[in-house]
Amino acid sequence: MLNLTLWDLLIRLGAYLLVGTIAGILSQLVLRAFGGKTSSESGGLSFACFDIVGLIFALLFKQGWGRGPQPEPGGLRGGRIGLIAWVILTLGLTLGALALLPYANRPIASFGNNIVTQVALSVLGAASDLGVWFVIVSLLPIPPLMGGNILLALFPGLRATARKLYWPGTALVALLVGFGIVQAVLEPVWVMLRGWIAP
Predict the structure, then answer these.
(1) Model pTM?
(2) Long-range contacts: 31-34, Cβ < 8 Å, 24+?
(3) What is the phi/psi pair of residue 144, to 5°?
(4) Each residue of 17-35: pLDDT tens digit?
């Protein structure tokens, strides 16, 4: 259901930016821990996992995704297994960080009942919901999503083709989210992970 009030759009925007920043920082930290570096194809060092189409779908459907950095081919410890581990560990740590967000509610609420406090608390609450979808959708093995790196690790011959798959892959993800297929198929996973984050 589309809820397109200005307040909801601003809260979802703040939640997306928060989750994308958390995922981006963690992806760089894990990438460095695996001895990797960001390839020049992805624009170099980035501390955010943002995708403009993913942002639009986060605003409209609460199911956005991010585009993580592309590691330098062959530069990770562990090779292809390291690439898979990087994706899974980054998104797992992102879920762990989302589980810690509710602990910020009390300190933020101590600033009193004003608009800034209400916005911050609303963004934190929305970040948990939106963040779980962010992780689930980003894990799909479709380039240019982070999960697309899993596909490239399993089939390294696709790497040259993957660069050309940005817009077709993005369109495929947009269709899957827009037509409710992602929600219909993966909602049980979302419920389980959301329950773990906010028991």
Answers:
(1) 0.90
(2) 31/69, 31/71, 31/76, 31/86, 31/90, 34/76, 34/77, 34/78, 34/82, 34/85, 34/86
(3) -100, 15
(4) 999 999 999 998 999 898 8
